[in-house]
Write a structure and sequence with these properties.
about 350 residues, alpha+beta, 6-stranded mixed sheet, 9 helices, 21 strands, about 35% strand
Length: about 350
């Protein structure tokens, strides 16, 4: 990797860990009763971290041992890191972070995870983390070392990770920093089913699935002309599917009414108002003979000939001729677009 590319990598990694780097001008370090040391930042970059650690990055071994000792004696938070010609960018970063008190860098064997209801896993080579942080979300950066033939992570994955306090930096071992361009997805509006009341949820689900449905429909059980009196029952939702008719109701009906409706050819679907939208959905899908499966779904980038990452979430997959997933959380638009493009997965939310 060219020296300027290596320095650009160091700058990106350090600044993303709340550090700063001075590459121009002079840095003045007073030595008590002696004078001051003037550092030319164009030749010896100065790195400063939020734990009050300052690192002088000696790229060409310009600082002699006497000055190094003097700096260490007078300024315990100031350190000189000497870069050897054979040091690659990983070796340099390890030397830098070894001098800080608040950060540690280590090899990573297991994937890093980010997100809650929708989680992602990303395989990285190195991790830089805040040590002993009391924050709910300590700062975390994963480094992926790639070659020219490696697949890069989709931008949507890196953006979502950063929104969840995980920074991912990809570095080509020969050319330096690399990034996939921003993806632009054409997404339809996300269908949203109302969580309450049960009647509204049922009607929205039925119409979304393509059934002919009426809300608050009057069902005639007896007719004045035919039976000598009228008797109607109001259904929460009436669904007609080919030669079958379904009544969805959330109020308890007397057994006599239930028997009369069944004798009239209606199939009854009772959903308790006190139950959850997920239980309503499963009851309705089962009664309408719509295939579905509920569980934990994982999409692997490797299986799709992409970079090593996984996207996982809980939900219900409705098998309607397309891959449609019903979820109960707000989905990131970038990941929604990626899932649609790579796996033809569409979503419905309640």
């Amino acid at each position: 990797m060219p020296p300027e590319s290596r320095l650009a990598v160091i700058k990106r990694v350090v600044t993303q860990m709340n550090g700063s780097i001075s590459l121009t001008g002079n840095y003045y370090l007073p030595i008590p009763q002696t004078g001051q040391v003037t550092i030319d930042c164009t030749k010896i970059p100065v790195l400063e971290f939020d734990d009050k650690t300052t690192v002088f990055l000696d790229l060409e071994n310009r600082i002699n041992s006497s000055l190094k000792k003097m700096i260490g004696d007078y300024w315990p938070n100031f350190h000189v890191v000497t870069v050897d010609k054979k040091d690659d960018f990983i070796a340099v970063l390890k030397k830098i972070f070894a001098k800080t008190k608040a950060y540690g860098m280590m090899k990573k064997e297991q994937p890093l995870t980010a997100g809650n209801q929708l989680s992602i896993e990303i395989a990285v080579d190195w991790v830089i983390a805040q040590t002993g942080s009391r924050q709910n979300r300590p700062l975390l950066q994963g480094l992926r070392v790639v070659s020219s033939s490696s697949a890069l992570l989709p931008k949507a994955i890196k953006t979502y990770a950063q929104q969840n306090s995980l920074i991912i930096t990809e570095i080509d071992e020969e050319t330096g920093l690399v990034d996939n361009p921003e993806e632009i997805y054409s997404l339809p509006a996300l269908p949203v089913l109302p969580k309450a009341p049960a009647k509204s949820f049922s009607y929205a689900l039925a119409t979304h699935l393509g059934f002919s449905a009426d809300k608050d429909a009057d069902i005639k059980v007896f007719d004045m002309v035919k039976d000598g009196f009228n008797l109607s029952i109001k259904a929460d939702v009436l669904i007609k599917n080919t030669d079958k008719k379904y009544i969805i109701y959330s109020r308890v009906l007397p057994p006599q009414f239930i028997n009369m409706l069944k004798e009239a050819g209606y199939e009854l679907i009772f959903i308790a108002e006190s139950a959850s939208p997920n239980s309503w959905m499963e009851r309705i899908l089962s009664s309408l003979n719509v295939p579905y499966v509920s569980g934990y779904f994982t999409f692997s980038g490797v299986e799709g000939n992409q970079a090593p990452y996984k996207i996982s979430f809980s939900g219900t997959k409705i098998k309607t001729g397309r891959n449609e997933y019903v979820i109960d959380f707000a989905i990131d638009q970038g990941l929604r677009g990626l899932l649609q493009e790579a796996w033809s997965a569409s979503f419905v939310r309640y």
